[in-house]
Amino acid sequence: LHILLFIFPSVQSLQILVYSLAIAYSHLDFSSTLIRKLEARGHTVDLIIARLSNVITNNGTHNARTVLNVGYSNGGPDWTRMPHITRPFSDLPGADAYAATLALTYFKYTSQLCEHVLTSESIAAHLSAHSYDLALISNYDTCPLILAHRYGIHRVVGYSPFPVGGPESVRTADWIKNQDIYIFQYYGGIPDLPIYIHDAGGRFEQFDIFNFADRFRNFVRNMFMMSERAQIFRGTNEIARKHYGADFANIYELGKGMFYELTNSHPLLEAPRVTSNRIKYIGGIGFKPAKNITDEYHRILASADAGVVLISFGSQILADAFPSHVVDAFVHTAKNLPQLTFIWRYSKPLQEAPPNLHTVDWLPQNDLLQSAKVVAFVSHMGMNSFVEATFAGVPFLSIPLFADQIHNAYNAHRLGMGVILRKQSITRDTMIRKMSEILFNETYRHRAREIASLLAIYPDDPSKVFVETVEFAAKATKLGEQFRLPGGDLPVWAHLGYDIILILYSLLLLAVYISFNFAQYILSRILLKKVKSD
Q1: How much is the pTM?
Q2: Transmembrane stretches, by residue range (predicted)?
């Protein structure tokens, strides 16, 4: 009997509320993956979708009991028209001034959206009529913390489709979509390390931790970003107290009480970093075995004797967003590498496209990446693309555009399975040079396959980690208090020991001063006695 119970453990069906802030299709897809995992364990899930993007109209692929949608009234602001989406290859998202503007815009938009969430009659009626064991909330928005507290859901677990490899992406040009990094770090009590966190968004591998100039630039920039941290919470704090009273809990404190944060990262793909027991890695949870592909793709793969290069920049970047010089660089590269076959997700017709360059409106990316014929992947390095290609063992030519893409590109390069081509540097010559490097230097392909083999045997299965973490959290109490590191409550200068060093140096200087004056006094007495004796 004990053996049977071990093999077939009983699982109490949980009532779980999932909150998803939908910025891109990939974010809703990630939420759907988590919901399906919970449903497979017999749990009941209700879903709230807060739509920041007007183009996302579906509810995801799952069987949630109830789906509650909320968006801007009369269409509202259109996140898809922001410059980093419409002009992704320009240098705007790489400039700190633009990043600050984008951050303020994001906080403004999410605050407006939170107003609609908190005033939604359907959401209020549903949450008042149901009780939940746990809330699973998107961790790049503070609004669901308000809902959970307001309706008495005391067990809260955060999740994010972004990595949590380090705050460099948020603290430089692209911190807006990685707002969750701040929340991971602050909520978990992970101390700030403004000197040693490298600026992957700006310098990639050129950062030298032993170089004083690099550390100085990091310190100045990161301290500035830390000073802006309160903006993450200020807007939703004001909205919560507007609707629920001036004594409503502070978002800071609610965040501290979260039990876990689940990150779409994998330990093998991230640089070593300070972490916390409340952070769980579930990167790769959405990876799926390849499905059958169409006859057309079979034909293309069969004729590609020298291999196939996939080119895709994700669902947010439309064909109109590609500048002519970028399109020309891809076409010219395909012409100069006629032995290879290129498949590019690009929906506009091309002039004078070579026969080895195939453009498609939609790409079964995961299925094609797992084909032995695919030898390289030209990618914007979104998290889904990064995970799918690494699990498939395909090396990257990374052209990151914004947000966590920069962080992921850096990691692929650091691991030796990718090269980086900055979007500002795309020309015919740079494209051919970087493409040739990734294609004809076997070390990249060998390293990509090595990483894939390690991922396949890694002992912590992300699906198991996710499900068991949620099921444990639904039965626990005060885990946020238990797991939060006390160092997070110290200011940077105190955590790094500057206050102690200052006191020690002050005491040392005082000792030197006293010793110097004492020596002067003794010397003056000796000289005085000598004068008197003479």
Answers
A1: 0.84
A2: 500-523
